Amino acid sequence: MKNIVILISGRGSNMQAIVEAGIPGANIAAVIANRPDAAGLAWAAERGIATLALDHKLYGSREAFDAALAEAIDACHADLVVLAGFMRILTPAFTERYAGRMLNIHPSLLPAFTGLHTHQRAIEAGCKLAGCTVHFVTAELDHGPIVFQAAVPVLDDDNESTLAARVLAEEHKLYPAAVRAFVEGRIVIDGLRVKVRD
Ligand code: GRF
Predict the structure, then answer these.
(1) The whole model's pTM is what?
(2) Containing domain of residue 101, as a range?
(3) CA-proximal residue: ligand 1, atom 7 (nearest)
(4) Is the CB of 82 under 6 A from ligand 1?
């Protein structure tokens, strides 16, 4: 059994997709949020999953928050940390600690459109394709070895929310598939390249 800790900041729909996938060999050990009001916390608690709110505002520095977060994650004996809409920049010490065992999902086809407002920026840039990326987390924001990507068309009448909805539907398939591949030991990281065995 692989212990998985999922970090969220908000609604947690990707967290829900991973939980509902019922991945064999995956134990969702805890869902942790940096915002006590994150809606996903209640959803997880209702399903009997251990939850924890670590309010980042109560910590004097990024380092102090990350140290508390690492303590909570390590108490779960986590094999994999899954960032699912976790809206905090992590310190290099934290990303180094979980190198090769921390995944993130980003709503763009990386390396295009790191950061925020990815859908609006893709529309304004005239992209014909948009999408999402699951990648291992490194110290550089929204970089790191890419595990899976999914693309969707950008339609002529798209706005930020219609495109976001089309991408989100793909996220909900892509992230459970990546977690499953990790749990099954099918992922090999080679520099920036990731090979996922069938
Ligand atoms: C998703 O679009 C994800 O790609 C991005 O933040 C959003 C989180 O949504 N990192 P949810 O909390 O998983 O519903």
Answers:
(1) 0.98
(2) 2-196
(3) 85
(4) no
